[in-house]
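As described in the Methods, two query proteins were run sequentially through the folding procedure within a single session, without resetting any intermediate state between them. The first query and its resulting structure tokens are shown here.
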Amino acid sequence: MWGMIATWRMALEGVVTASQMLSQGALATQTVVDAVVEVEDFPLYKSVGYGGLPTENGDVELDAAFMDGDSLAFGAVGSLIDIANPVRVAQALSRERFNSVLVGQGAREWALSQGFSARKMLTERALQHYRKRCQQTIDKGLSPYDGHDTVGIISRDKYGSMSVATSTSGLFMKRRGRLGDSPVIGSGFYCDSQIGAATATGVGEDLMKGCTSYEIVRRMAQGMPPQQAADSVVFELEDRLMSRFGRVGDLSVVCMNADGMFGASTNISNFSFVVASEAQPPTVYLAERHLNTTRYVPADETWMNDYAARIRAPIVMEEVRYD
């Protein structure tokens, strides 16, 4: 039975297209990348791909990863500047025996040598967002580190093969060269077709402290249902960080096992994710924490309409007062 699960509402259109392909017999390796590409190409999603928010230096540095659950081959890029569709570069790297992870200038040079397209990824709208966020944070002496909505998608095809892919512009106003969990195998993603797959979104510095995605897959291998595996990993990590580090950021995950069962967990109140399978059409769920479990319900029409209006709303700068 084919299936797909993805982080955030922004993945919906890509999941719709990919689920149609899966139903017709397309492979997990193809559909998961195509679904992420659709998110990367949509300029209104300011945390992924074209139109992503820039670093403190004003550059859009993109991270992406891909993993084939049959072979365990993976590829990842980090701090990639002005190359369209970094997830396709990551997939191409997964076919390399060595040099599977490339960052910065090396990643860009390799991508161009392989025929990937150069493209200026900073849009005027993203620049306006950047200026407004600076106005709301740095100009007021507040921390700018906010905004980290990675798209992570898991695909299972009719033949039982699984793949996972991620893409993000990372933490808003991050320092040049900063990497989060998204391109780090075992933290931002992991996939084994014989067991299952997981992918994460949130504060990468915290997610990496628990090797979050690998740990979820490991627990599924021990027989845990996906939902239990996801909740146990997220809330145990949260408790550990609070007791030993004193604070914890946003932690959200989605996962799917080899039988197509899915799970999602979050320690925030506004996490959305998308699921599609032979048993159900593409559906957006809204998840929130309830004690040490995660509850979710399908998003209603009002929420969906509000979301569409919000991402398309004009950007209004705050009025500067000098009195």
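Immediately afterward, the second query was submitted; its sequence and tokens are:
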Amino acid sequence: MTDNRLDGNAAGGALREVFAVDLTAATGQCSNCSQRLALAESRLYTHAPGLVGRCPGCDAVLFRLVRGPGRAWLDLRGVTCLQFALPGAT
């Protein structure tokens, strides 16, 4: 049996392509109430250490984005998955 595993660095190109898109246009599903929505439809709260996006249906946290000097943290645990068009796709 062969080992088909690669080091996580092998995903670098694909991840760089993914995070080059406008995620506000991405559609997802709330992990709490299963509502499907674009991230742009979330209710955004800015009076925190970062940005907090909440589901308009159940008010559960969909995502958190915190920025610091030279880095950012993105937590998407409230979204089961994201769907988006890739740049240059027709």
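The beta strands are 27-30, 36-38, 43-45, 51-54, 61-68, 71-75, 79-83. We note this only descriptively and draw no conclusion about the first query from it.
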